[in-house]
Amino acid sequence: MSPLAVAFLIFFLRCIDVSLGTLRLIVTVQSRRTLASVIGFFEVSIFITAVATVVNGPLDLFKVLGYGAGFAAGTYVGVTLDRRLALGNAMVRVITQEFGDLANQLTSSGFGVTVVEGRGGRGTPVGIVFTLVLRRAIPGVMDIIRQVDGGAIVSVQEIRQQFLGYFPGKRPVPHLPVAS
Questions:
Q1: Is 13 exposed, middle or buried (0-12, 13-18, 19+ CB in 10 A)?
Q2: Where does residue 78 rank: exposed (0-12), middle (13-18), buried (19+ CB within 10 A)?
Q3: Is 139 left (phi over 0), alpha (psi -120 to 50) or beta?
Q4: In whole angstroms, what is the distance from residue 23 CA to residue 111 CA?
Q5: Across the chain, where does the E strand assignment appear?
Q6: Weakly modelled stretches of the chain, pLDDT under 70
Q7: Rounded to whole angstroms, how far apart are CA atoms 136 and 100?
Q8: Pairing mode, strands 89-96 and 153-159
Q9: Nearest in space to 26 (alpha carbons), one of 44, 41, 40, 46
Q10: Which of 43, 94, 97, 170 is most buried, judged by most C-beta within 10 A?
Q11: Residues near 19 by beta carbon (within 8 Å), at least 6 away in sequence
Q12: What is the pLDDT of residues 138-157, one digit of tens each?
């Protein structure tokens, strides 16, 4: 195999294993142990193959460049995959004077909300609207926020774990008493 072909092979292997490593880290933080373990198995298997290819024989500039470029490209691809897959949940917090309208719009769109009323620094009535959503739903939530109050203050935080609460499509079935 030509030195250039070997360099492309190493590049390709590193790109895949680093991308998998990024995804594994994300699912590990989300406490998805089984999925993280499966991804880790493939990640390390591909990594060992890439390293063995680099260290096999004398040091070769093409191999080293392929290794480094594959690492860089894999980082880029992994972060891009994370954004596209949008695994997990996020807490969206909105500080707005239009909290009633925003809560109504979010609720009518199927999102659960919690509103905390308060006063801004200048004494104006404001509300903090909290909604816990799937990460892939964030663009839709942001569209609703912009429509209701384009000047709202918004922060988004990824959630590692959540317990109980309202999630569209995951609403628990109420337990009704059994008639005797």
A1: buried
A2: buried
A3: alpha
A4: 27
A5: 89-96, 114-119, 125-134, 153-159
A6: 160-180
A7: 24
A8: antiparallel
A9: 40
A10: 94
A11: 74, 77, 78, 81
A12: 899 999 999 999 999 999 98
